[in-house]
Sequence to fold (777 residues):
Amino acid sequence: MVYQSCQTKTSERFASLALGEISRLERFRRTGVSLNVPPPQEGLSPAEEIDHIRARVNALLFPSFKEWMLPGWAVLALRDINTEEVFLESLENDLYRNWSLIGGVGSRKYAVADSRGLTTARPDCGSIDFLIDQGDEILFPALEGKDGAQLHLVSTEDQIYQWEVVSGSVEITRLVYHVERNGAEYLYNEINLKNYNLEGTTCRFYVVVRPLSLLGFEPIESIRYDASTRRVICNRQVSLILDHSPTSVVMTKADDPDLIRKIRSEPDRTDESTKDKKGLAQCVLRYDVKLPPAGSQRFFFVSPFGRTAESAEESDFKPDQRDRDFHVASWFDFSEERLGAMLPDETLKSAFDQAVASLAIQVRSVMFPDEPHLASIGWKDRIRVLLALIHTRCTSLVCKIAEDLVTHAGTSSGPLEPSIFSPIIWGVLQIEEYGLTHIKDIDVKSLADRLVRAIQASSSEDASSDQEEDLLTHYGLVQPGTFRDIEDCAWNLAAMQAIARLYLRRNESEKAASLQDSIEDYTQRLKGMLADVQKSRWPRPTDPQMEKIDREILDLLSTASCFESGLDPAILADLCDQIESRSLLKGLWRQSHPRELYSSYLSLRLAQFHARMCEREEVETLLKRAMDFLSDDYLLPDCVNTKTYGGSYGTGSSVLAAADLVLLLRTMMLVEVGERLILLPGIPDNWYTAKKPLIVDGIPTRFGPMGLEIGASANQHQIEVRSPDLPKEMDIHVPPSVPMRMVKAFGASIVERAMKASSPHVRIVPLAESAVLTFHK
Fold:
């Protein structure tokens, strides 16, 4: 069979794969053979091959499943498809690809869950679902509408998810959270039963280990329940640890139409194991619980995040209610340390808070990835994640990440690759530049020395190449790679400037001075490269290469929004106009690979550039459009479906979207340009006069922590800036409706009133630690 030949790939293909990934890929291949799924094309990555098989198995099996057998997204998707008239070749979750993150601060692993409560700790062990017996029927959460029980975030501060339902006199509450104990990480499903009747009662619920994930089919070939240790073992790995033995255990298949009868009418059934070549093995644990009058009882169902073999000794593991307390305490500590913000827009404030939490959960996985979709994130984007945490003052977390990052980077032998290490070193050095902490204990300087040598060597090679080939001729036609080279040059320049400042802080002025020639060389080269592009010819707008070129321009604009790049703002603004006319549709960035998709976050990068250019109307338009696609838990997926407003591709909770939202809000409020601060260049006009104030304390800047407040008194509005070390000059932007002559300053002198600028502002010289601008209502 052709499909089986795919199993004889060369060992190089698996060289970078963990053992679990190899096992999972082989499992999907075996199920594909059993179900006669057409083989994928050659050359797919393991993740792409798994997606191919899953989509076709979904299409093959799901139409014949009862609705209660399906994940929630498949129920909704199939209701709109007439499977008797339409042949389904593949079925993917491209309508409701949203999910919530369940993790800890800086955790190595995290779980995902949909709003119906289907929860996945490790996809190679399926997912956990909970069903409730309600007398005459069973409540299947996947069939519940928006008005029914939903798994939702209790608070952005504690990161606990909750699902509640009432059955008779019993209130059933499910809490889902992440726990770390003795260096190991676990997903906790805690079930609390509370009888509100003054008479005793019985409650019944079911715990189901299903061969599903939030994307659809996830094969379970074997499943076993070990009664002596109260463990469920899937695919020879521990999937679930129980603290109470179930009343009955039913081993069956996910497409068993007689399942409901079996689990309800066979209370003494105690199956031990089952196998299925098609990967549809399933386990249902039934619990009949007797509750005394006004009584309660608690159950724990724990899923290890690590690969725990069935022979491992886990019988001494005992879940404890205090584990939840430790989880909450760690998140409260994080919330107290990080930047707090009160925003006039309550939804945006919740989105900001959850974005920071999402970054804290995913940052370690992004920097040191195991998952294929995270490993594909480039280092420039990874450093945007780190920078977002720096800007939100997540000091303890970013220092740990930076230390591990430098340690890992230091193990590389030979010359460093500037396109990778320039962003890394620049990002790590921002921790000290923004005053979060000194990084003397992190051996970053030796790595910085190596990077300088690599950049200078690369510069010499580029200079030799320039002599042999005229640069204008090389870039006579703009093509993919043109703007990537410019962006790499900007990162090299930024890295060398940051390293020079590091040398000065370490009292190594001679080493700092030795970099000035290289810095000047890169500054001029950068200007020359951008000037050459202006003289070059462009492909036609319909040329397929233009999409790649537009994305490179967007990446360049994103880089220019993060630091002073030395690039001409007028040229960048012209490039921004060009790509918006070609690639922006109804406020969303459009891309055609692997199909027509709309990114949830790339437009936020354009908004950040507009904020830096003080173009607040464009910022507000793009930000509002992105907020249309927030999930109920204030997260954005990678790509969105403009009809369902759900996720359509990629991950259902995008770490890049979280970083871009944080960086945008920071730029809307504050931009550093040399020795000058630009305040409020991108906030909406209505924030100045909103009933709810804007209050942000302790914003990290190179001048020191800064407080910013916009509020109102009895007869006037005021803008206050606070810091022990205010810069020599500040530009504070005001709404265009305010007559500039009516703006007054206290604790500062107004040296310029720019009333005719595209964004009116006053330039002040602070005279005290607090400067206040006022204007009448």
